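Newbie here. two chains, one complex. Structure please?
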Amino acid sequence: MEIVFAVLTLSSLGYAAVTGHTEALGAAVLSGAADAVGILIGMAGVSCFFAGILAVFGKAGALVSLSRLLSPFLRFAFPGTGEDTRADIAAAMTANLLGMGNAATPAALSALGRMKKESTLPPGVASDPMIALAVINTAPATLIPTGILALRHASGSTDAAAVLLPIALVSTVSMLFAVCFCRVCARLFPYRENKRRQLP
Amino acid sequence: MIARVVAALSLPAVVCAAATVMLFSRRAGFSDLTAGVGRGGKTLVSLLPTLLPLIVAVSMFRASGLASAIASWLSPLCRRIGFPEEMVPLWVLRPFSGSGSNALALSLFSEVGADGYVGFCASVLLGSSDTAVYILSVYFGAAGVTRPRYAYFAAAVTMLFCTALALLVGRAFY
């Protein structure tokens, strides 16, 4: 995060100094800080409301039933994993489906812990299911992208929900692609002892 | 046409589904809705300390003219592959930082509008991808992985696939 912040600010000052636009930069600092609070307030209504709606579904047991629906797919995507591991993966996926990305991380980490125990590879080496889980979560299927809806609404979109169907389509297809690509990679790059490490 | 109807009805449908659940489920009631809204508010407040400095940084980045300079350097290449040049900074930052890419998306929306073609494509890309590099480092850090094998390669290919698909679908739906 330090790197992102430093790259953005230092390169801005450097470029502005070279091109002679430095007078706009001070104003940008002040307006950026002021805008941030306004943006957050603009997002607040939408994201709080959907957090509430999703809490209702979660409490009613939607997570459990969705996990059950996902189980045949998980057996294909994560061969060789146990029942409990797949339950954790399903919880992470369901959280992503409903746009609760931060709820996905603890479940995914728990799944990773179980996979580590199931792995036959030396410690420190990522097993195929571990890689598949991480890669899938970089393009997770999303049905209700709460964050995007809030961002679009805060930016004055008149049709914030227009992106729901495209996002559901793109994210689902990307996730399926990630699953298949990981299976292919697992075949192409099986684990081998790293010979270079044994050289003095 | 069908896509428009589905998009228009999906949010009311979600709300009505929650209403039905609250009416008939023994486990979930209105108090769960209010508790969830409260937690959502807390999550949002916890977002501010990260989002605010990044929005300041992005605001400087835009004001310096560097963002548009990068976009114009890359525009011949972008035009050849059909990638909207305004989306370049967002696309570059997306794998590394969630708050950073949110801040860039907001600045993009304020520049070209959330409802335009570029805003539409950016929304689809942002909604369909996640912070790949960040997720991989958090996951593998927690699991003590020192040899990630093909993980970063597979994540990069997935990101490229996702980008191409987002642009194609953006064109088809917009």
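Moderator note: Residues 30-63 of chain B form the longest helix (34 residues). Chain B has a mean pLDDT of 87. Thread marked as resolved.
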